[in-house]
Amino acid sequence: MERQSIPQLTTFPLGDKQDIIAKLQQEVYSLQRFKKSGDNPIGTFGLGVIEQSFPEKVFPVGAVHEFISYKQEEVSATNGFISGIIGHMMKSKGACLWISARRTVYPPALKSFGISPERIIFIDVVKPKDVLWAIEEALKCGSVAAVVGELSELNFTESRRLQLAVENSNVTGFIHRYQPRSENTVACLTRWKIKPFYSSVTDDMPGVGFPAWDVQLQKVRNGIPGRWYITWDADSIMFMDKKESVTTEIQRRMVG
Q: N or C: which end of the chain has fewer CB within 10 A?
């Protein structure tokens, strides 16, 4: 019986292997709609270490992001966080469409996040079932910087249509779900939960301080979920230590 030869595996130098892995990663990111850093004309979004959670170390544009809120105060915190990101996006491109059946944002407050209210086109739809259709059509319009859609329910098929809509337009979508029946699986690249947090007040200064949030990135495709405590201050964010912030708040209440 003739002895069969064992096929030899092809070996590559270490440098070649690293190049191959890097190219494969870029192909995977492209298929999953993550933009390379060089494709992002905006650059950093001022999110600091939060951006390290994304595969390309920058907030993904040309994609759909999901936000979930259950209480009114969470809605306000989420709208603030979204507005901070949109403010950076609108510095280099177009306007933003804000679509809902029941608007939850106060337009003049957008100035605190570097946005002129007149650059936001609010579309108030009468019937909630028409909100999704309006969001999908808006995401196809490549002349806008971003689309914010407020709704409650979103299934996987519907979210997949939204993701397909941005593939050609390169528009970034923010889907803000209020009190959904379940946190079901969707095709969005990320899932966030933003909650209000204790703000810090400078000594001897009146007021309640700058907006502070408990930011939870619960899901991110090919990235690393995380949780941060931040304060929005003058068009940028500052990271807070949770323990120190809570202690400061307790002391302030005791004095009051």
A: N
Element (H, E) at 97: strand 96-100
Question: CA 30 from chain center: how many Å?
Answer: 18
Query: Please, where are the H alpha helices in the chain?
Result: 14-31, 72-89, 129-139, 156-169, 242-255
Angstrom distance (rounded) from CA 11 to CA 164: 39
Nearest by Cα to 56 from 213, 189, 232: 189
Task: Map tokens 């907030």 to a residue.
Answer: 59
Q: How far is CA 180 from the centre of its chain?
A: 18
Q: How far apart (Å, rounded) are the C-alpha atoms in residues 193 and 218?
A: 7
Pairing of strands 172-178, 190-196: unpaired
Residue bearing the bigger pLDDT, 13 or 70: 70
Q: How do residues 231-256 score in pLDDT, each as one tens digit?
A: 887 666 777 776 544 444 444 443 34
**pLDDT over 90, % of the chain:** 47
Greater pLDDT, 112 or 191: 191
- CA gap 249, 198 in Å, rounded: 7
Specify whether the CB–CB gap between 54 and 28 falls below 8 A: no
Per-residue exposure over 16-47, b if at least 16 CB sit within 10 Å of its own CB, e if not? eeeeeeeeeeeeebeeebbbeeeebebeebbb
Q: What is the pLDDT of residues 200-222, one digit of tens each?
A: 666 666 666 678 899 999 999 99
Contact 98, 148 (CB under 8 A): yes
Place of tokens 């004095």: 255
- Quote the tokens at residue 228: 């941060």
Question: With contact defined as beta carbons under 8 Å apart, do 74 and 197 qualify?
Answer: no
